[in-house]
Design brief:
- With 102 residues, the chain is mainly β.
- The chain has a single domain, classed as Immunoglobulin-like (Sandwich).
- The chain is built from no helices and 7 strands.
- The strands form 2 sheets. The protein has a 4-stranded mixed sheet with strand order 1-7-4-5, with no helix packed on it.
- It is elongated, with a radius of gyration of 14 Å.
- The two termini are 25 Å apart.
Length: 102
């Protein structure tokens, strides 16, 4: 299992998740809101669509915002990119990134 607090511990794979790796994460607080940037890499030569949503959590580990709907993030073949996010409420102190491919 991933070490608590590590980038890997923040990612929850929901079903299939092929050919995309999740790398480093940058987490900061800007204007009172938690902001996140997640490094992603498409390891195949084909274009890939990744589906994702963030769960924003409070100090107690429970959600502090409504559940987000799934969003699509497209990565071209062999592309590396960053996925940015901003918590919808200031009381969010942690997050989980839920991901899947087709």
């Amino acid at each position: 299992p991933p070490a608590p607090g590590s980038a890997a511990s923040k990612v929850v794979v929901m079903g299939k998740f092929d050919d995309i790796t999740v790398g480093a994460m940058r987490v900061a607080r800007e204007n009172g809101f938690l902001t996140v940037k997640v490094a992603l890499n498409n390891t195949s030569r084909s274009n890939k669509a990744m589906y994702y949503r963030f769960a924003w959590l409070g100090d107690d580990g429970f959600p502090v915002a409504d559940e987000e709907s799934w969003k699509v993030f497209n990565l071209y073949g062999s592309q590396a990119s960053f996925l940015p996010a901003i918590a919808p409420v200031p009381k969010a102190t942690d997050f989980r990134l839920e991901v899947k491919t087709q």
